[in-house]
Amino acid sequence: MAMDEFDALSPARRDALRAALRAAFGAARVESATPLAGGVSGAFPFRVEIGGRAYMARVEGVPSPLRNPHQYESLRIAAAAGLAPRVHHVDETSRVVVTDFIERRPLATFPGGPPALARALGELLARLQTTDAFPHFVTYPAIVARLFAHVRRTGLFADGVLDPHVAHLERITAAYDAGAPPRVSSHNDPTPGNVLFDGERLWLIDWESAYRNDPLVDVAIALDTHGMGPALAAELLLGWLGRAPDAATLDRLATVRALTRLYFAGVFLSGSAVAHGARGDSDLSAPTVAAFQHGRADRTFAPGAAWHVMGKMYLAAFLTGAEPPGLDAAE
Fold it and tell me: On the CB side of 35, how many CA atoms lie within 13 Å of its CA?
C-alpha cells in the first residue's frame, strides 16, 4: 500500500497513524487516504477508505500548554450518546483518533433554513449537557485569563494597550463567580466548522476542547460564531431551554459571552503572533462586521492578517458588547 498521502506527517506520527489503523481494522488494506483541512488547531485529519467504507483518522498537532487532557474521554462519552461519530480507536499517548467519516453537507441546506438550524443546534447542545458528565478541567474564566496572558506576553501589542481589557476581565470574572451554575458536559468549540450536517441531522466533531463547563459557554460560542442576530438567537435558546429564557438567564449569558469573546480574541491573536511575531501594535481599531466580510470576499486579508483583524474585532466585542464576526465553516 502506498502511504504517500501521509507524507505531511513526521515519521513518528506516520507510524502512530498506521498503528491506530491496524488496531482498528487489523490487516485490512487502506484503499485511499485523503488529507483534509485541519483548521486552527494544527491537527492532521485524513479521510481513509477501508473495505469500501470511509473513516476519519485524526492526528493531533503539537500539544499546546493549554492542552485539555480530557478530550478523549469526553469524545467517548459523546459518541456513546450519538452526538459524535462512532469511535473505532483512540491512542491517547500518540494522540490519534479513528472514527466514522460523515460526509459534510452545507449548513445552509438544513431543512427549514436558518431558524430550524438554530433551533436544532440548541437542541443538540441541550442533549450534550444531559450526557454522563465529562471530566473537570479548569474554570472557564481561568482558561480565558491564561490565554489572554499569553497574548500579552507575545509583544503583539504595545505596552499598556490591553490594560483596559485586563481591568474589564477582572470585573467580568467577579460577576461570573458571583453566580456560577453547576457545570455540565460541554464541547467548548461549537463553531460552524465543528457542527456537521449529514443531510439529515447535526453532529459535533473535533472534541479537543471538551470538558465539564458552564452550560452557557457552548450557547454563547454558538450564538457569536454562527453569526446569529436576535431572531435566530431566540430560536437557539428555545431549542436549548425548551422555552424562552428569563431575564436572569439573559443577564448571565451576556457575562459569559464577554468571556467567550475574549477567548476567541486570544485564539486569533495567538495565530497572528505565530504568523507575524511581535509587532508592538498600538492601534486597536477594528472594522465593522460588514466591512470585514467585504474584505474577506475581496481577499483583502492574507490568513495571518485576517486573524489579527478578527482578534481586534473580538477584543472590541469583549469591551463593548458589539456583535463580533461569525466564522465560516472553513475557518
Answer: 15
Q: What is the pTM of this model?
A: 0.92
CA geometry: angle 92, 94, 98, nearest 5 deg: 70
Asked if 125 and 240 touch (Cβ cutoff 8 Å), the reply is: yes
Alpha carbons within 13 angstroms on the beta-carbon side of residue 189 total 19
CA atoms within 13 A on the CB side of 297: 6
**pLDDT single digits (tens) 218-271:** 999 999 999 999 999 999 999 999 999 999 999 999 999 999 999 999 999 998
Looking at 157-226, which runs of residues are DSSP E strands? 184-186, 195-197, 202-204, 211-213
DSSP code at position 2 = -
d(CA 1, CA 32): 9
DSSP character at residue 105: B
pLDDT in tens, 205-218: 999 999 999 999 99
Crossing angle of helices 230-241 and 215-225, in 10° steps, is 150
* Residue 64 scores a pLDDT above 90: no
Q: What is the C-alpha to C-alpha distance for residues 138 and 147, in angstroms, rounded to an integer?
A: 13
